[in-house]
Amino acid sequence: MPNQSNESRPFHKDLESILYAHVPLPMFTMDEEGALLNMNEGAMETLRVDWEQNQRSSVFQLFEPECRESLYLALATVNKISQVEKVELIKRNGETFETFCLSLQLLPDKQVIAFIAPLIDKGMDPLTGVPIRQEVPRLMERTFQENQAETYVLFLINLDRFKLVNDSLGEGYGDQVLQTLVRRLLWQLPNQQWIARVSGDEFIACAAIKGELPKKETLATYISSIIQQPFQVDEVQFTMTASIGAAVYPMDGKSVEMIWNSLERALRHAKARGGNCVSWFCQELKDEWIHPFRLENDLRRAVENQELELYFQPIFETTTGEHCGEEVLVRWNHPALGVLGPNFFIPVAEEIGLIGVVGKWVLDEACKQKALLIEKEASSVPMSVNLSLRQFLQPDIVDMILDSLNKYGLDPSLLEVEVTERITIDMNRAMKVLQKLRAQGIRVSLDDFGTGYSSLQYISQLPIQKLKIDKSFIAEIGVNSQVEAIISMIIHLGHELDLTVVAEGVETEKQLSFLKEKKCDTVQGYYHAKPLTFSEFKKYLLS
């Protein structure tokens, strides 16, 4: 390279700055020996390099040994004959990148700038830049064979209701969510070996357990917290949850096929539990696995065959014990599998497009049975009916609810609909629907409060009348003082917002006493009464 005058150097340095400021590719600068001199955020995320710890370190240590000679030759070539060199590099976790090395001849110390791009024709997902499903068996085999003494935890991650993001906000938002999630997993998951995209909203992650730490439960906590961090896309902020199946190699399978099968079973179990959870593969799953295809076909016939049934769980005033309401719960009397709860089949109904049919049946049947109870002078208190997120987002949901009320001559004040914090994924839509319901005299309660991640600002804006504290919190009364503090805070928050607070899952005298002390308004749970069939509930009320 010819000598440069001092006067020319600012211009040449500006050229590097312009590239870093305006070229939207991951890039880094190195000298002719491969020492790292500069790196943008895209390169740090792509290569998972902590720049503070890697300044002036060798670029060669980032890649597999067989790539180092190619990179060294490319560096030598661009500095000798001033041409663009392309070299294929393989990272240590198996991801392949195509790197263009461009010599900045005008800089005084033979600096080379490299642009990084994933090789999409080498089994890479073009959207997220990680391997695709077809590459997973190879990644597993190589990982397991290279370190046979290591233990690995694998997570099969399926984003809950991701389709609603695309439907409500647009596919562009959905793509950005997936890209952000992958970057977070690559950057934040401890001892991460590799990440791959299995399908549209499904990913698999592999992490090592080195020695005793981190334990598999710790890794699961990391995964969940990474996913639940708020997403910010343009002016919209929202949160996501995921159903996660987890398995440990080699305990849950000593071959690629066995570990993959274990992961899929664990994921199905997580979905059956209602999502937003991690389900570990265990022996019971081998025996209890139910093929989803069979479940789908059976569910399509369930309404027609009158296999769905409503249960009623009474709600009571905390201080007086007076019956003040009831929650309507749906169960599926499966001819072969017995009684199945809603967490098992409602997600299936949503996935196969049956939630409209099932939801309409629940509303109609609830109104019909409530009318019969009033006729028998057994109950004149409000009843609450759960609306799933997809059911809530149906365009005709308000008309559907009013049709059911009118069909059986029920006053709207006798109906309370329960929604979860997830409705805030489309805040404008949520506000319009809730305001229409309130205008008709229908009450609204926010179910499972404390388990979601909505902004408190949103909660204060929603036209609701009740907060329901999730039973997972109530179970910790007398066990966990920190959770007790959270319960106290929720009750205080509800009262400050002029809301009635309901505690779900009350099972012991100790729990009830605590809730009385904290002035929780109403309670439901096995302490007072379990969910009852219609005939059982009628006898209960009349007795």
What this model shows, in words?
The protein is α/β, with parallel strands linked by helices and 543 residues long. The protein folds into three domains: 6-118, PAS domain (Beta-Lactamase), CATH 3.30.450; 133-288, Alpha-Beta Plaits (2-Layer Sandwich); 292-542, TIM Barrel. It is built from 21 helices and 22 strands. The N and C termini lie far apart (99 Å). Strands 13-14-16-17-18-19-20-21 form an eight-stranded mixed β-barrel. Strands 2-1-5-4-3 form a five-stranded antiparallel sheet, covered by helices on one side. It has a five-stranded mixed sheet with strand order 7-8-6-11-12, with helices on both faces.
Keywords:
3 domains; 21 helices; elongated; 8-stranded mixed barrel; alpha/beta; Alpha-Beta Plaits; 42% helix; Beta-Lactamase; 5-stranded antiparallel beta sheet; TIM Barrel; single chain; 543 residues; disordered N terminus
Write the layout of secondary structure elements.
Layout: H1 9-22, E1 27-30, E2 36-39, H2 41-47, H3 51-54, H4 65-81, E3 85-90, E4 96-103, E5 112-118, H5 136-146, E6 151-159, H6 162-169, H7 171-188, E7 192-199, E8 202-209, H8 216-228, E9 231-233, E10 236-238, E11 242-249, H9 256-272, E12 277-280, H10 283-288, H11 292-302, E13 308-317, E14 323-334, E15 338-340, H12 342-351, H13 355-375, E16 383-386, H14 389-392, H15 397-407, E17 415-419, H16 427-439, E18 443-449, H17 456-461, E19 466-469, H18 471-474, H19 481-496, E20 500-503, H20 509-517, E21 522-523, E22 532-533, H21 534-542
Parallel strand pairs: 11-12, 14-16, 16-17, 17-18, 18-19, 19-20, 20-21
Antiparallel strand pairs: 1-2, 1-5, 3-4, 4-5, 6-8, 6-11, 7-8, 9-10, 13-14, 13-21, 13-22, 14-15
Helix pairs in contact: 6-7, 7-8, 13-15
